[in-house]
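Run log, item B.
One chain of 652 residues. Sequence copied directly from the ordering sheet:
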Amino acid sequence: MGCCNSTAVKRDWKPLEQRSCTDVPWLIVFALFCIGMVCICVFPIATGAASRLISGYDSYGNTCGKNNSKIEGVPLSGRDMRENKYVFFLDPCNLDLINRKIKSIALCVSKCPAAELMTLSDVKQFALQNGSHLCSYDIPPTRYTSHPDTSTKCPKLPVPPSKSVPLLHRCVPVDIGCYAEFAETFIKFVGDNSVLRRVIAGVLASKEIIMGLCVLALVLSLIMMVVIRYISKVLVWILTVLVVIGSIGGTGVLWWLYADHRKALDKDGLSVFGKEVASDNVTALLVYAIVATVFTVVLLLVMFFMRKRVALTISLFHVAGKVFVDLPLLALQPFWTFICLMLFWIYWITVLLALGTSGTPVKNNSTGVVEYQMAGPLQYLVWYHAVGLIWINEFILAFQQMTIAGAVVTYYFTRNKSQLPATPILSSMARTVRYHLGTLAKGSFIITLVKIPRLILMYIHSQLKGKENACARCMLKACICCLWCLEKCLAYLNQNAYTATAINSTSFCTSARDAFLILVENALRVAAINTVGDFVLFLGKVLIVSCTAFAGVLALNYQRDYTVWVLPLFIVCLFAFLVAHCFLSVFENVVDVLFLCFAVDSKYNDGSPGHEYYMDKALMEFVENSKKMGFYKPTDGDGREMKPMARGGTSA
C-alpha cells in the first residue's frame, strides 16, 4: 500500500499492450469503506429513524401513522397516531435560519386544511367536522376558543391552505408569505418591495426564452470545443499583443505620472501639508513605476524565451479539437459525471437526514419538545458519513479523469485511427473498472486527506468570526490558503498520474513519480500550456457567455410584459458560464493528457525506423520546426531504445 515498497519488475514500455490490476489493497480498503457507508444507511432503517423521516413525527416523539411507545417525562408521547398520518406545523414561518430548521411545534393530524382558516372558531369547526385537531393534544376541540394557552398551542392565524398532495406526509402551505418576505430582505431591494415580484414575474414570463438560451449555451460550448483548434493561434497572438501593449503602456503611464507630479512638487505655492501629500504621492509613483518596469522586463524576457513553447500549446489545441471530432462521446462526460454526483448527493443527504432523527429521544427542557440525540460511538457515524461524502465525490471525479485519459491515450498511441475501438470511451471505462479502481481510490484519498483539514479550518474560522484576534485570523487564513494550494497541486499531479497509469498500467505512486519527472523535464512547456492555454480557454468561456448574453438581450427586447431583465439575464449568463466551464474543463483535461503523451512519445522515440513517432502531424511539424531552430533536443540518452516508463512494480 505504500509508495516505496514496490518490487522491481523490468519490462519494455509498450503503451496499451500490458494491463494489470493496480493498487489492489487500496481497492479493498475503499470497498470496505463503502460497506461501512452502507451500514450507516442500514442503521437508521433498523432503528426506525428512516420511518420517522418519511412518515414524519411531532414535537413529542410520536411518529405519524403509527402506534407509538411512551417516552419517559413526555406526557403527550406514546399516542396512537395510526389515523393521523400528516405533520402539521403551528407556525411554519417560525424559521431558525442559523440551524436551518422550523422552530414551530409540529402535530400529527388526520387531514391538512384545504381552505384558509381565519379564526379559532374556524379551526374548531374544522376539527369537529374532519376529526383533524390543529391545536395541541391536551386541548379538546370544544375549548379551542376559550383555552388560555391557545396563543402558544394553537396555529398562528390565519391558517393558510395546504397543498392538495402533502410533501413527505407534511402539510405544506400553498403560499407562505414569510418565505417571500425573507427573500425580499435577503436580496435587499431597498425602497421598492414590489421589485422582487416584478423580477420573478419576468422570469416566469420569459421561461421559454431562458430555456432556449440555455440550450444555445450548450450548443455554443460543443461548437467551441471543435473550432477552438482553428482560432487558438489567433487568440494566442491577440493575447500576446495585449499583454505586451498593456505592460509597456502601463509602465509608461506610471513614469509619466511620476514626472508630472515631480514637476508639480518643484513649483511653489503649495502649503506645508500639500507638499507632504505631494511628496508621498511622488514616492509612491516612483515605487510603482520601478516595480512595473521590473515586472515588464521580466515578463518580456519570459515571453521571448517561451515563444517557441507557445507553438506547442497551439498544436495541442489543434490535436485536441481533432480528438473531440473522432471521439464525440467525450463531450458527454460532464453529463454522466453530473448525474452520478447528483444521485450520490441525494443518497448522502437522505442518509444524513435519517441520521438526524436517529438516536435516543430526549426532552429539551427549554422548549419542551423532543429531540433525537446519538450518544457514545454512534455520534461519530456523522463524521464517517462526512468523510464518505468527500472521498466518494473525489473518486467519481477521478473516474471521469481516468476515463478521459484512457480514451485519449488510446487515440494517441493508435497509429492507424481506423483501427480505434468502436467506442473508445466505453472501452476506457471498462479498463478502468477492471484494472484501475484501486488507483482511483488511492488518488482520491490523498485529495481527501488535504481537503478535510482545510474544511475544518474554514469551519473554525467561520465560528470564530468576530471573536479571534487579528493574528489568529491571519494564521487561519494562511493555513487555509496553503492547504488550498497543496490541494490544487496534488489534483494536477493526480490527473497526470492517472494518465501515466492509463499509458503503462502502473500503480499510483509509480505513475505519479514518472509523471512528475516528465513534467519537471518539460517545465517550460508546462508553464506555457498552463498559462497561455488556460487563458485561451478562459477567453472561450467569456466568448460563450457574451454570445449567450447578447442573444438574451435581443430575445428579451421583444418581451415587453415586464421591466426587469436582471434576473433572467443573470440566470442565463450563470448557466452559460457553468456549461462552458464543464465542457472546456474536459477540453483542458484532453490537452493535459495529450501533452503527457507527447512528452513520453518524444522522449522514447526519435522518428527513426522502428522508433517512429505516434504523434499527430501538427505535433510532428512542431518537432521538425524545433529541430530546425535548434530548440528541440532528445531528453533521454540516445532516444532510440524503448525503455520502461516505470521501473517500479506494476501492481500494488
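Observations after the first pass:
- The chain has a mean pLDDT of 78.
- The CA atoms of residues 62 and 228 lie 62 Å apart.
Flagged for discussion on Thursday.
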